[in-house]
Design a protein that fits this description.
mainly alpha; 10 helices
């Protein structure tokens, strides 16, 4: 089923929209949540919560790209759950490494978590990403959107892990310069 048809199901308040969304994007959403949470049960819960959030958001919103809309909901839910767990357990993991790496170019007195959620900053970062070469952008997104481990990214792009690290380092440096050029001083 196409995204447009699924969105129409949401707009007509047809509950089969949830089934179709789950069928079409369930694995995608689980992957996003699991890369952040590293726990099957928590990831499953985030995915289930995603469908409720999508149900409540569509309408009034009409997403242009359903996969990105649903992926963002999942990512935000997983991120919120991660922060709650971190507050309880003070845990680490791959996602903490990702946040620490981004803290180099997006320092904030409220922490990188708060800065990432800032809508204006998101728009500026999206503009920056569109300026990057496709491969560099894909590596950046694999690490900082999908929270993939360096080894997995290296395997995905058939390069050495050091090449991924170098690419990410250069991208973060470019991002920091771009943010300063845009007048963003965090």
């Amino acid at each position: 089923m196409t995204d447009e048809k699924i969105i129409e199901l949401y707009w007509s308040r047809d509950e089969s929209a949830l089934e179709e969304s789950s069928r079409q994007y369930g694995r995608y959403c689980f992957s996003i949540a699991h890369n952040i949470l590293k726990n099957k049960e928590d990831s499953d819960e985030c995915v289930n919560d995603t469908w409720l959030k999508a149900w409540n958001a569509i309408p009034p919103q009409r997403p242009n790209k359903l996969s990105l809309f649903i992926g963002r909901i999942t990512r935000n839910l997983a991120f919120d759950r991660f922060k709650a767990q971190k507050a309880q357990k003070r845990c680490g993991g791959e996602f903490m490494l990702v946040l620490e790496e981004l803290d180099e170019c997006i320092p904030s007195k409220n922490g990188v978590e708060s800065a990432i959620l800032d809508e204006d900053l998101n728009n500026i970062i999206n503009s920056f990403l569109h300026m990057l070469p496709k491969r560099e952008c894909s590596i950046f997104l694999a690490r900082y959107w999908y929270s993939k481990p360096l080894a997995e990214i290296a395997q995905q792009f058939s390069v050495r892990e050091n090449s991924v690290k170098a690419s990410l380092f250069r991208s973060r440096k470019k991002l920091k310069a771009y943010l300063e050029k845009e007048g963003v001083y965090l």
